[in-house]
Design goal:
Mediates the post-translational oxidative deamination of lysine residues on target proteins leading to the formation of deaminated lysine (allysine). The strands form seven sheets. Strands 15, 16, 17, 19, 20, 21, 22, 23, 24 and 25 form a ten-stranded mixed beta sheet that branches. Strands 1, 2, 3, 4, 5, 6 and 7 form a seven-stranded mixed beta sheet that branches. Strands 8, 9, 10, 11, 12, 13 and 14 form a seven-stranded mixed beta sheet that branches. The chain has eight helices and 39 strands. The chain has four domains: 116 residues, SRCR-like domain (Mac-2 Binding Protein); 100 residues, Mac-2 Binding Protein (Roll), CATH 3.10.250; 165 residues, SRCR-like domain (Mac-2 Binding Protein); 210 residues, no CATH class. The protein is mostly beta strands. Helices cover 9% and strands 32% of the residues. The longest helix is centred in the N-terminal third of the chain and has 10 residues.
Amino acid sequence: DCTHDEDAGVVCKDERLPGFVDSNVIDVQVDEDRVEEVRLRSVVPTKKMPVTEGVVEIKYKDGWAQICDVGWTPTNTRVICGMLGFPHERKVNKNFYKLNTERQKHRYRLHSVACVGTEVHLAACPLETNKGNATESCEGGMPAVVSCVPGPQYIQNSGLKKKKLKTTSTVRLKGGAKLGEGRVEVLKNNEWGTVCDDRWTLLSASVVCRELGFGSAKEALTGARMGEGMGPIHMNEVQCLGTEKSMWNCGFKNITSEDCQHVEDAAVRCNTPYMALENSIRLTGGRTRYEGRVEVLSTEANGTRSWGLICGGAWGTKEAMVACRQLGLGYANNGLQVRIVGGRTYYEGRVEVQVGARWGTVCSAGWTTKEAMVACRQLGLGYSMHAITETWYWDSSNVTEMVMSGVKCTGSEMSLSHCQHHKTVSCQQTAAKFSAGVICSETASDLVLNAPLVQQSVYIEDRPLHMLYCAAEENCLSKSAASANWPYGHRRLLRFSSQIHNIGRADFRPKAGRHSWVWHACHGHYHSMDIFTHYDLLSSNGTRVAEGHKASFCLEDTECHEGISKRYECANFGEQGITVGCWDLYRHDIDCQWIDITDIKPGNYILQIVINPNFEVAESDFTNNAMKCNCKYDGHRIWLHNCHMGDAFSEEAERKFEKYPGQLNNQIS
């Protein structure tokens, strides 16, 4: 008497209960005789982040205590560096610190540490604590000092020389809201694939984290917690010792189709260096801490700092993505401080930045999903659900000055200061109500096209003009159709099916509300998105020679994986979207599911399909939104081969596919 529409759910607090044990999660809820929090205190004052060298201190009661370094080993340093987000350690000049620390009083809480080097937390090492209160005695020693080597993405402001980095990597993280977390994918035979979660532990996860330039692992996640991948599963039952330089050096089993499915994809959360980026951005006026007007903190030439607004013109999903990401973790930055204020919740509000000592708003001209994503990331609030260009309805701070404009992000930045923006504020609408804002979310959708189905379903049809009146009304034919001898003659159409899967962690919903959906009499239902997919036929040099002109789209759940119920349908003015675990199928035989190639000459081409091309709706991963195929047309027949998603192959394989550099990795500019 129960269906999946009645499935129960919970929202848990971030903190774990004392005494909770999970082998795949660092247990920092420890008793009073154990270590809970560790930091590096720099002896030499510095503004550069992250702090890579200094005295090791542990949280003790209401303050901080030191560790006596008698018997201190490099393996202890390795564990400390891993906890603090650094992959490697290096020797430190103790003489310098000895002179400095002799003039200070210390409180020693630990007197013996004996790590083997593979532990993910100092609390997992054998420790000798001082019974009772901390003591000032460290006979024959001094406070423990360590020096860590940051990963490549953190080196630029750390004071270390940037080494020549490997141009290619055989492991990556996908689908994570923050830097240092995501689904684990490995490169095999030039094709990316996932890792099965059988026997997935913190030791194996830490090898992945360190290989990618982060510290040890905080969590080893199972059950596709960072979304399901697509394509092959390359590894199963990975068993690392914790000392390997690469996961490929660990023991593992090759996968078979019976062994594992994508619902078992492994993921990680890595320790990353503290960058204090969340202190340079804020949201104001939102309903929760996840939304609001974006405000950023910036420093003037005279050293004064203040908060200001961002011009909201052209502010969209990608800009909002950067803003959301900046509120979390990122790499070195000496730039803007950002916050969100005035939102109804913690996840929304007006974006405000600080310039000198004052806060200001951001011009909303050009504010899109990309910029909003960066703001949410900087704030530690995950992804951007919406990029807001008018924030007058949010009660917020008393900030009225606009201090940032022309923000242009790629969507992958860790901070708004890493995005292009005007040196001098230039915004046509400077009123506070036109300030940029965001609504952030901890989860996002992720759309992926079924590339093999496109290749299998393609064919050519010569369709009579008298059957194309509805298609012509919706502008689904090329321009030359307007001068055709209607209703006589025909148009040559390249037809194929498009099956679009949502493999993310949130439903894909159209940006437009129901009140603005458009009725299409030809199709007999409402369309919720004007531009959802681009169909293009490209020449070998990347020039578009033909394109699909599908006017707009209705989004619905055509089919779902077993155990998942459909939520969206186009009929009867139903709600539109694509549920997680479901897909929307546009069959080859429906109107406008084609490219008009009537005027195309025989030759070699590239078929390209791009989902959500204008980034109207936030996704956890935009790199897998484009698909392309090699296409051969002899004037009568057509062949497609090598159809693949943009991030499915290695860069080397992608370059071989491409005859030109303009489309590397399917990133459409």
